[in-house]
Amino acid sequence: MARDIKISIRNLYKVFGTDPLGAMEHVKAGMGKAELLEKYNHVLGLQDINVDIREGEITVIMGLSGSGKSTLIRHLNRLIEPTSGEIEVDGENVLAFNETRLRQLRRERMSMVFQKFALLPHKTVLENAGMALAVRGFTIKDFETEANKWLNRVGLEGNANQYPHQLSGGMQQRVGIARALASNSPIMLMDEAFSALDPLIRSDMQDLLLELQDELQKTVVFITHDLDEALKLADNLVILKDGYIVQQGEPQNILLNPNDPYIINFISDINRARVLRVRSVMTRTSEPPTDCAGDISERDNLESVIALSGGDTEHTYRVMKKGAQVGVLDMKELIRALVPTEAHTDSERGQL
Does residue 162 contact residue 120 with C-beta atoms inside 8 Å? Predict the structure, then answer.
């Protein structure tokens, strides 16, 4: 069943400069980012962005530096005002909110986790975790139980009375996540939240986010420049370049069906066996295979199936989800999926 749309972005443009509306007309006439900067000294931040963010899913927005991903996420809570376009949250036009409603949106409906942690150094871990509740008027006594619950949940039990400088980078980021969770907001905005962390800690934080998401089903908008991270986390992936969307859709489909040379370059060095999932290459059927080599999960990556099969391409597996068969995977089809796919022709292009 398709999930409801939580956030809808329509025809969103952002141009930085002294005459953004005038500059935007050049963009709509076909002028690109580099030419706009050279001729008119205006920066094209976002160009005709259209994205539906579904409730209870992780939508990852990725791209290289300067692609517009951080600019985009800051439009959702109006830290940046658009040049033109529409943003709706739960069907309400965010751009029409007055100061009171905008404050309520930021305090109660959206939380934000930053790359640089954004912890207050003079506040304890407990006080930082409860900050969103404190700004709503709650005292430490009021929010202590809730803040401690989420500190414990992210693995920081016993650290409530410490200060940020006493914690490692990974622990500080856990405080940031606990703060977002303690706010009880249904939407979490995460702007390069794990980019400043060491690789092993970063992987642990990704696992923690997925674990929490399985339990809480938040609507998460996650910004990253790292494709491995995007493929690991995303239910829906949006890839930006120079302020516009190159391709968006289910990440496994993008990996199997890139629609642009830019995407092909992005995925050229990816270990496809490690990131592709069984669900992306299986044949959907409830009929068991005639000669079944065993059961596998639709969430298993192809690397694990290759190891299970011992490299035998004659094997066929029954694919399971929550105890029921959802498909069949032939090892020959798995091997074909590991061959990089060329970009679609122009006539085949379109959003996945």
Answer: no
* pLDDT exceeds cutoff 50 at 11: yes
Rounded CA gap, 46 and 13, in Å?
A: 5
Residue 350 in this model has a pLDDT that exceeds 80: no
CA–CA separation, 231 and 251 (whole Å): 6
Q: Residue 147 — pLDDT band, cuts 50, 70, 90?
A: very high
Beta carbons within 10 angstroms of residue 332's beta carbon: 11
Give kind and range of the element (H or E) at residue 5: strand 5-16
DSSP symbol at 108: I
- The helix (run of H) or strand (run of E) holding residue 263 is helix 261-267
pLDDT over threshold 90, residue 338: no
Tokens in use for 47? 């160009």
The β-bridge partners of 7 are 53, 89
Burial class (CB in 10 A: 0-12, 13-18, 19+), 45: buried
Report the DSSP beta bridge partners of residue 296: 319
Element at 140 (helix H, strand E): helix 140-153
